[in-house]
């Protein structure tokens, strides 16, 4: 799903790793551990992460767990920062089969901020036509785009904003 975004961000001298969320029915904490391992093994002097939807929660959790000083930025696209309505509905029925639903339905987990010890710049991009995730009133949005939750990662206007964020200090 993130391949078009990856292509738009390719530049000479920039190393990109598209790390798609493995698949549904995966323990999210195992996914966080795997992302942490990948970041620790990276020889990059500076790491920026781009997280879409639940991938943003995975990225935030991995950043907090790893505490790597090389992580500089997190760009959050339509992030899950509050309980997801459909997850609350389906958690009792499918929570054991789809472990992500348990996390997505939990207010405390979804609102987990980045560690204040980390010097990470976080930028958020929100879709104006968002019907999947809920935005808390106190959540800071840096860019609000004409997009939907899914279409946001396919839109050149969003890609340009991400490029600007990656290129800024």
UniProtKB/TrEMBL annotation:
InterPro entries linked: AB_hydrolase_fold, DUF676_lipase-like
- DUF676 domain location: 38-103
What Gene3D superfamilies would the database entry show? alpha/beta hydrolase
Give the classification, highest ranks.
Bacteria, Pseudomonadati, Planctomycetota, Planctomycetia, Planctomycetales
Name of the protein this chain belongs to: DUF676 domain-containing protein
Signal peptide span per the entry?
Answer: none
Q: Which domain of life is it from?
A: Bacteria
